[in-house]
Structures are given as structure tokens and as C-alpha cells.
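Worked example 4.2. Below are the chains of a multi-component assembly; read each line carefully before continuing.
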Amino acid sequence: MLPIPRAAGRRGTPRWVAIAAIGGILITAGCSTKASDDDSGSAGGTVATGPGVSGNTIRLGVLTDQTGVFAGVGKSISQGRQLYWDQKNSQGGVCNRRVEFVVKDHGYNPQQAVAGYAQVKDNVLALDELLGSPVIAALGPTIQTDQMLTFAASFSSSLLSNPYVVVTGTTYDIEMINGLQALIDEKKVASGDTIGHIFLDGDYGQNALAGSRAAAQEFGLHLVEHKITPTDTDLTAPVTALRSAGAKVILLTTTPAQAASAVSVAAASGFDATFLGSSPVFSPQLLDGPARAALEKNLLIASSVAPFSADSAGVQQVRQAFASKYPGQPQTAFVMYGYAQGQIMAQILESACRGGALTRSGLVNALHSLSTVDTEGLIAPLDYSKPGGIPARQIYLLQPDAATAGGLKVVRPLFSSTLGDSYQPTG
Amino acid sequence: MSRSISPARIGMLAFAAVLVIMPFYLEAFWLQLGLFVFAAAIAAIGLTLLLGQAGMLSLGHAFFVAVGAYGYAYFASDPHPAGTDHLGLGLPPPVAALMAVAVAGVAGLLFSPIAARLRGIYLGVASLGLVFLGLHVLVNAERLTGGVNGRDVPGFTLPGFSFEEDPGHTLYVLGVPFHREERLWYLALAVAVAGLLYYRSVVRGRPGRALRAIRDHEVAAAAMGVNVATYKARAFVIGSMYAGAGGVLLALAFRRMVPETFGVALSIEYLAMVVIGGLGSAGGAAFGALFVTSLPAVLERYAAQVPGVAPSGSSGIMPAIAARFAYGAAIVLILLFEPGGAAALARRLLRSPARASPQAAVVMDADQALSRSSH
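Applying the procedure described above to all two chains together yields the following C-alpha cells:
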């Protein structure tokens, strides 16, 4: 690149003009309109209010995935949320205020999530949804500094150490413990048998593995572990290895596609093991594929969120509302999850309102005042009275079934086990 | 000498002044985004040195960024911070930052024998291996990196001044509260300016000419006495150090790093930045960083106001999806209408008939034609 030639003799702008202009810009910096903070919250009527709360609205943030790998999940959750709050707001909202949402997409990218969080943090009282394990991990310290109560769309026990992160369901470790208890009750496996656990490297897999290890020790089972990565698509190798090890039950903490691979590989080779999957293992799309028959026969799912087809009163109500507002949309358990999160958030907000503090710290106090949150069967009963404790310990045992709405039918309604009730995560 | 300054230089100084006063006006969203842009710009300058000046295609840039980011966390953290079993050396943050950049340089040096022997797409694929290697280490070396849950980044401090917020004590500058974003903005700006100046001194001097000679014709360069292997190795080390410096800033902007950030997608983003900005131009790389880093977030922010876009949660085209379309279209349009990137566009705009003599214009066209044919 050549330097740009300057025409000889042409008069440039006098230097003092430039200096004066820059100086002027710098001086006006002092007259910035940027408002100073009010973290402490101001008294609006009888209730002290924090960020995002005005005389007639409460704003909550949603950091979700609308364009990345979990776009489908994010959409179902938002439909559930919409159903709940449309109804709640039409009945007068919470604390005489409408509840509104500021929705940001992060596309499962931590950097976009951090930017989106910076945008909403001063305008919202709490985060009603934070989706994606890497995103939750990246924002952890910031959430703590800002005292931002956050509903994490994940069931990992490792999140419990952050006092501002709320897990709304049974954790992955207890899913595995209770699921194994159910298989023992049904005589699918007994003390002395070998079981396998194929799990994804990462928080999700490690947490479920902690549960299966505790259960194997308690029930006298021999556990064979197989770690895989998200990019593995063919699970022939681990399934074959577990077959030679004589496993009667194989636990799956994987992606849905990987679970389909494992179950169909076993069926094709005549390996008649029972598969027990963590809650994220199932996706209704699996039943459109070739693995359908094998999944319906050999896979069970442990989940604390009711399937779309469950017959509890709460689920029936949501199902009707969904059918009239979103006809033809995918019917998934995440709709129930989103709706139940609305119920939980409403209870927190109402309790904070009664306590006279719709502020960030008021919300945390309100959360710990909730010892029984009943969502009418949408999610296992929740207890938030012990900070850092596992909030729920019951699960549904579910079975894939293409003929059922949402693709999952209930094998065993909400239950827990002795070990599931006493288990404490380590580390 | 002369008592006048060219309008271009005034423009540049005014732009710098605007960058200096921005924290007084912008809200947290823009400042946070700005920190990401500065971090990306510094790393991208390193890549444009490699790809634009030396003609070395590196797809492993994300790896060196990760080395800088995690290196800083390791050097600056106290051992076993906050009840974890993470390792740390507890060095003062400025020392830790310099060490992290140095370690990124050493990583580049270790890779440089390979970098000096491979060319074009072969080097690209070989360096891609570094990213996969890096991701594996980030996930599995838990005491060093925190594994999948990531690792907290200690705040930056200079003697007598902390870039972190002190709870219960707000710093006011000219009546404006200065949080960590405002403070880090100036750190990032200073590093970016230093990076630009150093880049200019490298590129305009003897090393720059040697690198361009290697890029255009290795044999001819060797025949003229340029030690090809040494220069390639040096370019790779410097490029890696830029990546490391970008990584330190990225870590500070994030507060906690997770392995997912440092995947292949990040390497591709850096590549997109230097191509959009115009190969070999530091200003172009900075523009590319601004474009690639901020456009998705900015479009997402304003897409809801575009007519025809459905509100979030409904079944139509949501703002986030519309923003993705717009982002993709913008990249294609830039490369379609200005293959030389933003740097070529800027050259074209600055070459106004009033300011350049006809001969100069002809010379510049020839210069551009040459530089285009060489890519």
C-alpha cells in the first residue's frame, strides 16, 4: 500500500482547530447523561422495588437459545411460559403488577450470552430462564456479583453451589439413583449383576455418573463406565464392550441421537439389555426414525418433569391451553417445564411481595421461604428451604411410545427411593 | 515543521478521542461488547500479520487465544482459589498477563517448525489440529483449566488501582460511576493501541518487507537473502503472542472461561475478521473484529423493531433468526462487492480526486491490482 500523496501547497486544517475540537469532546464527557445506579432499590408505594420493577410491571429476563442446537427446547419452554403468564396476568398478575419478559437469544454461544446479559441486567429483577450448560457456567460469577436470581434450565447438582442459581427439578444424579431402584423393584437387575453407564464427558454426564456410582455401591452392582464425547455418533463400540462385560442394564447420559444409536445397535445384535436414560436423552423426533421399535421396547427415561401425556390435573390443564393456543406445534415435556417455572416464579414473587421487598435480595429470601412448591404434578414437589440443597428428589419413570401425545407414556408416576431421599452430592 | 495536520490524521485523532470518552456515555451492553471487540481485534491483528503479510494460513488461532486466557488465570490466581483444587501461582496481574502472552509465544515457537515447513491449506489443517488438542486439554486438565465448568478469571489490578468493583464503594469519574466494564475499557484500548503501533513498526520495516517477499514468492525471497524459515517462525511467534494478549483480555471480559468458547468456530471467526477487514491491514482486522463480534448482538438487539419480524416466543420469524439472516447476508455482500475487504474500501474512499493527482491515482490502481493478483 502506498501512502496517500498529499497535494503540495494545499493548506491543511490548522493544528489548533484539531486540538480544540478534541479538547471539546473530552470536556463534554463530564456532562454525560449516564444515570447513576440505584442498586439499593427505591420504595414504590408500600413495597421496596429493585431493578425491572415499576408501579405496574415486573420485568424478568430470559436468556435462551432460539438459533442454536437447543432452539427447539427453548421454543417449547417459552410456549409453556407464555401459557402460564397470559393466564396469570389476565387475573391481575403478581403484586398488582403485570409480569413481562425481556427475551435475548444467545445461540448457545457463551460470548453472546455474556453480551446479552449485560444488556438486560439493569432492566430485569431476575432471570426466568438461562439455557445451556456452558452459558450457565460462564455467567456464574457475574450472577453472583449482581445477586441475580436465575432459573437454570439444567438439572446438574454442580449448580447448587451458586446461591443465586435455582434448579427447578430433580438433579441428574438422583434421576439415575431412583431409576435404578425402579429396575431393581421390577427384577430387571439384582445385587451382584453388572451394569454399564455410557455418559457424555462434561457436567451433565459427570453428575449422572456420581448418581450411578452411589447407587451401584448401595445396591451391590458392578458398574462399568464408558465416557464418550458429543461428536461420537456411533455407539457400537461401547455397547459391544458392555455386552461382553455381561451388562443387564445400560444407563445412558447422552444426546438423543446417541441414545438412539445405542439402543438400536443393541437390538440389531440381539443384545436384550434394558436402557435407562437421563431426562435429556429423549426427544420426540427419535420416534420418527428407524430406531422407534427398539426404543419403545428397551428404553426407559427417568425425569422429574411430567411428559405431555401425563394425567395429573396440572398437566391436563396445560394440555388444553396448549391445544387451543399452539395447535400443531410440537408437544413436549418442555412445555410443562416452562409452565411450571412460571408457577414457581409466581410463588417467589408473591412471597417477596408479602415480605415487602420486590428486590434482588428480597427474591432470594422469598425463595428460601418456600418449603413446598406444588406444581400439580408438572414437576416433582420442590423444597427450596435449604440453601444449597437438592430441591426435588422424585422422578417419573417414562417409556417412549409413538402412539402417545409427546411420545412418552408414564410407567411409574412420581416416586423416590431410600437412597434418593438421603443422597448428598459430594464436591 | 508544518503547522497543519492532514484531515485523515484529524479523523483518526477524533476517532481515538471518541473511543476515550465512550465509557462516559455508553451503557453496560455496549461496553461489554466493546471489550469483546477489543480482545478480538488484538487477536485478529496477529492473524492478519500471519495471513496477510506472511501468507501463512492458521486455523489454530483459537488455541493460542486459549493459551493466553487460561495462562493468565493460572498465573494470576492464588493456589486453590475459593475452595477449588485449581492450580495457581498468585502472581501480580500485570506480571501474569505478560507471562501469559509469553507462554502463548512459546506455544507458537514450539509449533513454528511445522509452520515453517507447511504452506497454504496444509498449514491451515495442521494448525486446526491444535484447536482439537487444546479443547481436549481444556476439558480434561481439570486442576489447570477447571474442566467443563470453566475457571474463574482473577480481576486485573495495577499497583494502587483495581479494575474490579469494590463492593459498597463506587468509583465516580466526572460524576459517572465507573464499574469494571468502564475501567477495563481503558485497559483494552491501551493494549489495542499498543498492538496497532507495534504492528505498524513491524510491517513498515525490514521484517515486513521480508514477510511480504516470502508471501509473494518464497524462492525469490530466499534468493534475495531472506531466511525464510526464521522469518516464518518469528511471524508465527508474534502472531501467537497477539492471540495470547487477545486471550488475556477475552478472559477479563468473560470473568469465567469455559472450553466451548475456544472451539473451531472461534478460529473461523478470526479468519472471517481478517478477510472482511482486508488481508494484511491492522485497521481492517480491527474493523473485522468490530463487524464479526458485535453485529450478531446488535442485530439481535434491534431486530425486534424491524417491521414484519414476529415477537420472541411466537411462531413467525423471531428477531434472533432475522438477525442471523442479516448477519450472513452482510458477510456475503461485503465480500461480493469489495473482495479486498474494509481496508480496500477505505483506500477507495480516501482516494478522492481533489486530494490525489491523476498520476498518483494511476500508481495506486496499479498497486491495488498487484496486491489483488497476489492473493
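Take a moment to check your reading of the output against the notes. The radius of gyration of chain B is 22 Å. Chain B touches chain A through 72 residues (CB under 8 Å).
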